[in-house]
Amino acid sequence: MYQFKKTYIKPHMNMMDLISENPFLLIMLDHFGLDMAFREKDISMICKENHIGPEIFLLIANLYNGFSHLTLPD
Fold it and tell me: Where are the alpha helices (DSSP H) in the chain?
């Protein structure tokens, strides 16, 4: 999986911006049963509305972005 930019995902980040950087995040969203109806919502809002623990969502999203759970953000 090749990416042009590697971003460590945080709760305040906009999901659509992250998908444009890494379209493979769409696969992750499908595993959570989420659709693309979030427009300008950030990660914390999406998690709250869908009753998903933000910690596990961020862990998996960052794995999809190439970070292990032991990697610290820049």
Answer: 15-21, 25-31, 43-49, 54-64
Does residue 9 lie within any of the structural domains?
Answer: no
Domain count, the chain: 1
β-bridge mates for residue 42, sequence order: 14
- 44 lies in which domain range? 15-64
5/70 Cα distance (integer angstroms): 19
Could you report the per-residue pLDDT of 33-51, keeping only the tens digit for each?
Answer: 998 888 889 999 999 999 9
Tell me whether residue 70 is in a domain: no
Q: What is the dihedral of CA 21, 27, 29, 35, to 10 degrees?
A: 100
Using CA atoms in the order 61, 42, 11, 3, what is the torsion angle rounded to 10 degrees?
40
* Residue 2: inside a domain: no
